[in-house]
Prior knowledge:
Layout: H1 21-31, E1 36-41, H2 48-55, E2 59-66, H3 69-93, H4 99-107, H5 113-126, H6 155-165, E3 169-172, H7 175-178, E4 187-190, H8 213-228, E5 232-238, H9 241-246, E6 251-259, E7 269-278, H10 280-287
Parallel strand pairs: 1-2, 1-4, 2-3, 4-5
Antiparallel strand pairs: 5-7, 6-7
Amino acid sequence: MQARADVKPVLKWAGGKRQLLEPILAFVERIFPTQIEKYYEPFAGGGAVFFALVARGKFKRARLSDKNEDLIRVYTALRDDAHSVIHELEKLCQAKLSEDTYYKVRASRPTKAPARAARMLYLNRTGYNGLYRVNRSGEFNVPYGRYKKPNILDPARLLATAGALQGVELAVEDFEQCCARAKRGDFVYFDPPYVPVSKTSSFAAYHSVAFTLTEHERLAKTFAKLSKRGVAALLSNSDTPETRRLFAAFDTHTVHAKRAINSNGARRGKVSELLVRAHVSALARQAK
Ligand SMILES: C[S@@+](CC[C@H](N)C(=O)[O-])C[C@H]1O[C@@H](n2cnc3c(N)ncnc32)[C@H](O)[C@@H]1O
């Protein structure tokens, strides 16, 4: 993968990692002064870390995956046929943006990959807070966002994204499956739906299935297994007693992040987050 300074996330996504980028990139630089053999991002979302690593030419190969099928379809369509996606988006942008046009696009059900991706990109830019939410039948149900001038069609950005995705493996899959083959020399970054910070905030549901405490326990086991195999891994999560308990065996670092949107759109302001690190030197320390 060649460095491409022009790439940025193409989708707005709850839990975007832009503010944690600095400590995450510092960790990567320390562990991988040259290149990561294969980069894995099992909770891809907006892919802020992936795109930042692409911009720096930091890995040779990559696998991006997420349980959210609509999301992975957007990346796949851009990787495989960005010009058709841009063409479909141009068609959607011919009608002046209004509440009425938003709901018409939301109600449409295109079947071809470029048109499906264009619909999602359009709804992501014009829907409320860039949220992704579906009803019980799996239909996207985010209300109109009322933005004055949303940047819906940005061909240069879409083409840069397409360039960044060339040769990248994309899959709709569970996190455990994504990194099952990771080896020493590879790097896995986990950005799961966060453990709720209070009893009143619920466990996040970015797709139809919620990410429960049982899922977080399974994730902690996966993290420990990778670390035993000598795979460098990093995980971000909310700083809660639960997270600290689950990752007590690992090296943790606290970061203060400003959150604009999250899973329920209600909590804003500065929050404390944890970066959990597993890498070769930490493994050596644990062995002592
Ligand atoms: C916090 S977001 C990721 C944010 C992303 N790193 C960014 O920069 O925008 C969590 C993602 O995990 C996905 N997800 C939830 N459960 C999952 C599972 N069991 N396996 C894989 N992905 C899952 C959601 O669809 C969501 O996109």
